[in-house]
Structures are given as structure tokens and as C-alpha cells.
Amino acid sequence: MGLLSTYSLRLARKRWRIRAFRKRRELRAVSARTDKIKPDDILVFSTLRNERVRLPYFLRYYRDMGVNHFLIVDNDSTDGSREYLAEQPDVSLWHSAHSYKRARFGVDWLNWLQIRYAHKHWILVVDPDEFFVYPFCDTRPLRALTDWLDASSIKSFSAMLLDMYPKGPIGAQPYREGQDPFEIANWFDSGNYMISRNRKYGNLWIQGGPRARAFFADAPERAPALNKIPLVKWHRDYAYVSSTHNLLPRGLNLVYDEWGGEKASGCLLHAKFLDTFAVKAEEEMQRRQHYANSHEYRAYKAALNDHPDLWCKWSEKYINWRQLEILGLMSKGNWA
Amino acid sequence: MSVGFVMLCHTALDRAAQVARHWAENGCPVVIHVDRRVRKRPYNKLVRDLSDVADVRFADRHACEWGTWGIVGATQSAATIMLRDFPQVRHVYLASGSCLPLRPVEELVAYLAERPRTDFIESVTTEDVGWTIGGLNIERFTLRFPFSWRRQRRLFDGYVRLQRLLRFKRRIPAGLEPHLGSQWWCLTRQTLSAILEDPERETYDTYFKKVWIPDESYFQTLVRLYSSNVESRPLTLSKFDFQGKPHIFYDDHLQLLRRSDCFVARKIWPHAGKLYRSFLSPDAATQTRAEPNPGKIDRLFSKAVERRTKGRPGLYMQSRFPNDNWENGKTAAPYSVFWGFADLFDNFEPWLGKVAGTRVHGHLFATDRVHYAGGETVYNGAMPDSPPMRDYNPKSFLVNLVWNTRGERQCFQFGPADVQKVGSFLASDPNAQISVISGAWAVPLFHSNRNFGEIRKEAARLQKIEAEHLNLLRSPWVKARVRVWTLADFVENPMEPLQVIVDEISPRALRRLTEAPRMADLTGFGQFLQNLRNQGMQPVLMGDFPTGDDPKPSANRRGRPYLVK
């Protein structure tokens, strides 16, 4: 890593932060309860649009985990998401009717809120369909993990996106509000992930899983990235670059060991493939507000018309984090 | 006679108060030292909380930065108060604010009463320790450390390098033999007072103030001067990870801690309410009077350290992505690669599966699709059979396959007609057993019903690819187990090489091959090669097949003695 590229990354980071600063005007506070945030609180950041049916379980899941406050940007929902979130005592809500795409898929908005409210907090940046799983999550609250990370001088924690899907056609079982989505979508791919290194930012680039297998078998380079670093001890100088896939400064992306050992890591269980998916795919196709001309959604839609079953005989049924650790999808590292 | 506790606290003072109260109310006096960097308000609250407990004292507050003298100073003043105010105390136990007693106090008192002259302190000479961090062993005692390791790491490291360069050495005070050990000890009144009241103490203190991490060496060294009976182990169960940070105990360690039979454990997560509730409750009495036995916990934590430093061989994932040659196993298990065998033998795959009892795939790297065993379209771990996916990252494909099928040896066919990208990875992997019959690609061409011009072109292409592959396998850096035969040699005597390969795949079977795979008919093959030559293409890799002198392997084979049962 030469001096020049280090400096150019520094400039890039500054640029993202300035951009976030400019984009702050696109946010309008609906119910800002940020004065309730205490110095040690663990915060969840999220952007969403029309996710009303998922919200009750989402909030409950993270509240039970020990999250203290939610900071959410609502991108112009029309299904009552905003009204519902505004009522929640531990949610600070902002609204934006501006382009999701031009806010770099919400990253700019959240970067701003993180600069403003997340300094020196542990933050978890997740979508409403992402459910964080970490080692010992069944017996230890999230604070146990962040305390341990603090004690070990670790500032960022990796959690790969693990796409979960139902057996049978997507949408055969309707999702009820408040229901655990993994009662329906409880299968996943255990061992078809392709990993390479992003030399520029130093993060790993992981692709694969059911989406690559079913929708991108002929164009794997276009398959969505699954590497995520959602849990960070935030500093106001940091910035997410592309979704939560990587950040700057690039030391934060070094969530993997390069000398043979295993660092601790978790997973984000991705409850994307529920009956809401078809509707969502249709809507996103219309809005064209997603990454790379929504080619992902175009691929989904094309495939969804004829092959809606992601399940195969080698699909693995989800049990708990220990199963994921044994399969090598996540690791306890030296946390015992 | 009883035991007194000196507690060093800096965070989670409410938990420290809880433990101090527990000890004091069970007849053990407690002297608490709180780091001076703790703010006034929480400190005052702690004092208030414990104001109703008689046998608790508070020591003068020192700033305790890790690795510096402060901790020793704190221990000294607290211990002095303990010895002064509580004459009935025979053993002084040094604990931290995040310690938790695992067994009733009476058991500890009884245990120490049976050993009235024993000092429990880990104390090892510098030559014998392998656990120090940063490579500083004896240098802890011979260099100066004026900079903070936490806050001024560069200065710290730079100053160490400078002193090494200048060959600077401090003199160790006469009579001292440097010893290191865990910071947590339990000393008798006699030993401890001898250390504290030593006429030379001023000299020693001045010296140790500049030693690196004196809390792990001050008492550990001085105890050797006075103690008649050092038991070199701490009574406190405390485990360190590979960075020298203590492991933390949580609620889910409850059973493990119960069964450890240790007296005190550190460090406990302050929010581990279940641990505090269970071990501090008055009815926590255990039946055992056993010796401490932390074996299980040792294993748990040493496994954790091993996972962090070595990891699982052959695993590539989000938090383990080793640099080249740091993999500790490029793949998870041994596997076999067969080059040319399926061309020479008609039924090679089913035959091998039968004799070696393994999973035998077809050409995994074929251009049309991935030929998994049994013609599967999806394989273990939900691996698809799409060639673009495989070729997008062939290394991931292969390591995933081997990882997903751990416990079952994988064999697959490979050849010059396949996508070659994975070749160099195979060659560099010690788990790969690569067997090559060079020139075997000509056999299917020989049997094919294609125009000779086409055959010639194809032969030239395959021969070029195979020559490159063979060159690769001859590179000096090759780690795979490579065996190469020419087609001519192999046809001459196929059973012996096959036996060697099969023995290596299933070493325990140890039986002679009784059935050979069915070899393709090679009648006229020599002529075929000659025709290629006549057309201007030089087939060189298959060895020597004279025209007209067709090999008769079957006759040859029948004569082998090992076919007799």
C-alpha cells in the first residue's frame, strides 16, 4: 500500500463524508428521540421502504438482543411503516422522499446519521430483512459481544449475508405480521460461496448462495455481494463506502485473518425470500432504484416466472449458530 | 486464622461491592483499592454501598495503567493495611474486582488452614516462560520502559529497539533472580510482611518501577527471597488468550465453572447475572472438597486460542482468508486427481469407486458442465454444476468441494480437454494426489469417428495443453504427490501403478487388486500414431508405440501372481 493510494483513499473517505453532509438536507425528522441515546447504547441503523409487515418482528428481534435505540430512514413508505415506527418509543425516524439510488442506496443518509449520532457507539447497520446472528447469541446478549470486542481492541465485526429460503415455491406460505420469518424460510446453502479479495479496500468479496446458483449461474460476476461488516464501533471519521460491504478507513475491512487463523464472525440471516418478494421485485422493477440498474431484480423477475423453488436436495435446514460455525460459515474465533 | 482479600478494582464497581460484601460477611476482611482514574462519584457510591460492612477498608488510590508500576503500588498499600488492621489474617489473597468465588469461603479457609506455610504464587524463571507478549522476556528486566504500551506504542517499540541497538542493559539488583508469573497470588503473612518490610525495599521498588509489567514480576521475584514453600500456581482460575488478554466468563460457563473446583475465577463479565447469583448465594455449598481441576476450562480456552491462531485447515470464509502458503492446509482433506485414466479405461470411475470405496467424480472441470459423481446436478453444500460459476473462481470451487465432503475422500478426472485454470493450485496443494498417464488423450481420438484433419488438429491442441501441465507438475515448488507414466509404460504393466494409487487412497484396505478396469482396445493404436506423424503432427507424450507391435496387456496381466487368491 503506497503513500499515494493511502492518500487517495483518505480523499475518498472525505468525499463520502462531504456527500453525506450534503445529503442531510434530504432527511426530515419525523420523530427524533436521539436525546434518549445514552453514552453506552448500542444503536441499529436502517433504511427501509414499505416494510410494515416485517417491522414488529424486526424490532422485537433486536430489542431482545439488547439494542437500545433504532435510527431509521423511511424512504417514502406508503404502507403505514412510517406511522408505525413513529409510535415506537426507542425509534428515531427520518423521512426522505428523495431518490434512494442517488443517495447511493441509502448509504449517504445513514452515513450522515452515523456521523451525527453514532460517534463512540457500537452500531449495527441492517436492513429490515437482515437478522444478525453471532457466536453464543442464544446465551449471551449483544453487549457481551461488544464488550469483548472492546476488550480485544477490535473495531469492526463481519457478518456474511446468508440467504434463507423456503422449501417449495417462494410465497407458498404467507408471512404473518410478527412471525419469525425463519419459520417459513429456514433453508440455506452451506458451501457454495466464492471468495476473493478486493485489493483497493482490503475487504473480502463473497458471492454465491442460492441467488448466484439460481439467478446468476451464467453470469456469476454479477451475483450480489454477500460480505458485510454491519457491526462497528463507530467514529465520526468513518464512512461506509458501498452498502455495508466495506468502509473507510480500510483497516476496518480487515475482519479476516490472513495468517491461517480464524477471527470471530457472525451471519446476517437474510429473510428476503418470503411471499413479499414477488411484490417487492415487481415494485423495484418499476422504480429502478436499485444497484446497477436493478439488474438483480430483473434477473429475479425473469427467473421467478418459471423456477420459483430455490430448495435443492443439498439445502441445509437452519438450526442455530453452532450449526453455522461447524459448517464454516462463521466462527467463534478466540471467543469462548 | 482466616484469609483476607485485597481487591484491585477499576470497573464494574457494583459487582466488586457484591463480591466484597460476600467475603466480608463470611468472615474474611477485604481491603479494596480503586484505580485513581475512576471518577469520584462511582467511587463514593462504592464506599457508601459498603459502609455497613465492618471488615472492609479502602486503600490509597494509585493510577493503575496496564503494564506499569501503579498496580504494584496499589497492592503494596492495600496489603499493608490488611496486615496492619487484621491481625487474625494468615493468608492474603490478591483478587480483582472482576473475580468471583466459585466455592464457599469456608472451603478456601479450610484449604489454606491445611497449608499454613504455603505461598500460592506462580513464579517461573524467564527462561521457562513461553507466554510473554511482544517477545520481551528477560528484557523486561534489563531495559527501561518509560513509554506507555497502550497509548504510545511507537515510542515504546522504538525505544526498545534503540536500547537493543545500543546494547543498553540495566543491572538487576544483587540477589534477585527474575521470575515471572500470574499477577494473582495468595501469600502468607510471614512472606508478605517480609517483602513489605524489607530494609532493601526502596532499592527494589526503584528498580521495579522501570521494569515492564512489574505486577507480573515484583512479588513473583521477591517471594523467592523469603518464602520457604512456594507452590508455583495461582489459586485464581484465570486464562489468557493469544494476545495476553484474560478470557471472560459468561452465564453459559456456569456448569464448567462449577465443575472446575477452583476457588476463585476471573474474569467475569459484569452482566453475567446468573453467575453472580449462583455463586454468591448462601446455599451455593458444594459437596466436594476436591483439589482445583481446571482441565476442562483449560481445554476450552486452548481450543479457542488454537482456532484463532491456526484455524480449521482448508476453510476459506469471511473471517479466515489466508495468504498463499499460510493456509495450514490448502484444502481440508486429501483427494486424488486422475489424468488420462478415464481415457484409457472404459469403466474407470465405477471400478475405482468399488475398489477404493470413495466418491469418484467425472471431469469436474469439463467445459460442458461439472460432472459430479452419479451425474448429480447439485452437489454437497448446494454446489451448482454451472461451468461459468466454477470457472469464475476455480480455487473456491475446489476448496468448497473438499470442505463440503469432509470425511469422504474425493477423486476426480482431469485432462487436457478440461478448463486448466485450477492446475497450479492442484500442484501446490500437499493434499492432492495427482496421477498422470501422459498421452492418454489420444485413445478417445483413436476411437472417435471424426475426420482425420480434425483429429490431427485436436491432437495438437491437447498435446500442447498436456505438455504445459506436465511442465507445471515438474516445477520445483510443487507440493502435490505427483506420479507420471507415459501411456506406453502404463499399458505395459497397469496393475502395479494402480495398486500403488489405490493403496494410497485407502491404506487400511491392504488387499491386492483382484479386478482390473477394462482397458480400451488398442489394436492399431501404433498405426494411428504413425498416421498422425505422417500428417505432420508429432505425438510425443505417449511414449514408444512401435507401428504394428500392438500391446497385449491382457495377456501380460494374467501372468501376474497377485491375481491368485
TrEMBL record, chain A:
Highest taxon listed in the record's lineage:
Bacteria
Q: Which Pfam families match?
A: Glyco_tranf_2_4
| InterPro entries with a match to the protein in the record | Nucleotide-diphossugar_trans
| Official protein name in the record | Glycosyltransferase family 2 protein
- Give the organism, scientific name: Fertoeibacter niger
Automatic annotation (TrEMBL), chain B:
Q: What is the protein's major site of localization?
A: endoplasmic reticulum
Biased composition, class Basic residues, residue ranges:
555-565
Compartments, record wording: Endoplasmic reticulum membrane; Golgi apparatus membrane
Q: Residue limits of the DUF5927 domain?
A: 266-565
Q: Domain of life of the organism in this record?
A: Bacteria
Membrane topology term reads: Single-pass type II membrane protein
Q: Name one GO biological process term.
A: heparan sulfate proteoglycan biosynthetic process
What is the recorded name of this protein? Peptide O-xylosyltransferase
